[in-house]
Amino acid sequence: MERRTIGAAALGVGAVGLGCMPMSWAYTGSRQRGEESLRAVHAALDRGSTLLDTADMYGPFTNELLLGRALRERRPEAFVSTKVGLLVGEQHIVANGRPGYVKRACDASLRRLRTDVIDLYQLHRADPEVPVEETWGAMAELVSAGKVRSLGLCALGARSGRRSGARLHDGTIRQLERVQQVFPVSAVEAELSVWSTEALDALLPWCAARGVGFLAAMPLGNGFLTGTLTPGEGFEPDDVRARHPRFTAEMMASNQPIVVGLRRIARRHSEAGRPVTPAQVALAWVLAQGPHVVPVPGAKRERWVTENAGAAGLRLTPEDLAEVAGLPEALGSWE
């Protein structure tokens, strides 16, 4: 698989990563099976998808534990990214950016992951009660201690609250400007997909201008862009999509033209050679947004991991990209 670099340290990763969250958290619980997920991780590494993205809050903790089982055998092949800064309670999630907590959380993640060093340690969310510079300074000390190789920041979510008239990622860029004064940012993780393109406006150019890697979260639109979801089929109560405005039966039906467009492009490429899926077109579009962009599609089955990895070899033509740009905007959002 093509290799891409993360940050000024030029840390090499496969062009398509693996988001591990669905294996343990936020998606259909009845389909989460440890052994099946382990096979998916091994399949990713076999195919060059070396960036494995997790967080201590996924589970909580169980996703890192699962990943640690795979890393016990194959740590040298993997680029491990995990996150800190969010605590999961019974009915709520809170931020904790206190320096002492960050250092303890890192040690706990290292134990669960069965590794001596984390390749990319990301701040999941800044704590409103703690200056972000203090949190970032503690994370920088972990680099000096040899426990972490590089630091990253996750973008603020769409529902985080923005100033009137501000763009979605203005708040994230303000945070980045502040922490960059303390220690270099190697990567930013934010949503980017065919149906969520807001990062193209300012956040992606900010990263490109500074040599910062961009990890594209949810590049398959939480599964919608794969074309495998049926409008009205519904989701289990523990599935995050059960509460997402774009996944009501009405919105899924209204947004089908986006999937139809991806299928049309996939069909053209399939007729010219190997079979191509709408998901691979969606990932290839993300890859085409810049050499510093690494899509991190979530998956928990070997089949989907293999399909996603195959997108690294798909090159969209200028006509393909123009066709994607002409697709209807997605209806329904967190706004």
Task: Please tell me about this protein's structure.
With 335 residues, this protein is of the alpha/beta class. It contains 11 helices and 12 strands. The protein has helices at residues 34-46, 62-74, 99-113, 132-144, 170-180, 203-210, 249-254, 256-272, 278-287, 302-310, 318-325, and strands at residues 3-6, 11-14, 18-19, 51-53, 79-84, 86-88, 93-95, 120-123, 151-154, 187-191, 213-217, 293-296. The strands form 3 sheets. Strands 3-4-5-8-9-10-11-12 form an 8-stranded parallel beta sheet. It has a two-stranded antiparallel sheet with strand order 1-2. A two-stranded antiparallel ribbon has the order 6-7. Strand 6 (86-88) and strand 7 (93-95) form a beta hairpin. Helix 1 runs parallel beside helix 10 and helix 3 (99-113) crosses helix 4 (132-144).
What labels describe this entry?
335 residues, alpha/beta, 8-stranded parallel sheet, two-stranded antiparallel sheet
The helix content is 25-40%
Q: What's the shape?
A: globular
Largest sheet composition: 8 strands, parallel
- Tally the helices: 11
In short:
The model is unreliable at about 160-165 (pLDDT under 50). The strands form 3 sheets. An 8-stranded parallel sheet has the order 3-4-5-8-9-10-11-12. The protein has a two-stranded antiparallel ribbon with strand order 1-2. Strands 6-7 form a two-stranded antiparallel ribbon.
